Amino acid sequence: MEIESPQQFHLYQSLKAHTAAVRALATGGPYLLTGSIDKTVRIYKKIDGAYILQNEVNIFNDYILSLQVRRNLDGFIVGCKDSHIYILDIEGNPIQQ
Is the four-CA dihedral 45, 50, 55, 56 of positive or negative sign? Predict the structure, then answer.
């Protein structure tokens, strides 16, 4: 039986922007979203093979529990510990529905 080398994977990119633990991640198309106990969501976009920070959203009253990119990639949904669900455009602005 052959065992695969534990070094078959290589770190591609490391991101550090939050001031507390990251609790939620979501990807969709070129976007990567991170949500944290620091009550922020960071929006990254893959450009030329690397994720580049596009925006930091800090409108939340408590920490982020979950994230989901919308199917048509025009925004995302945030579940927050403050018992609210936020629907935002891809730039992080609230969408009125």
Answer: positive
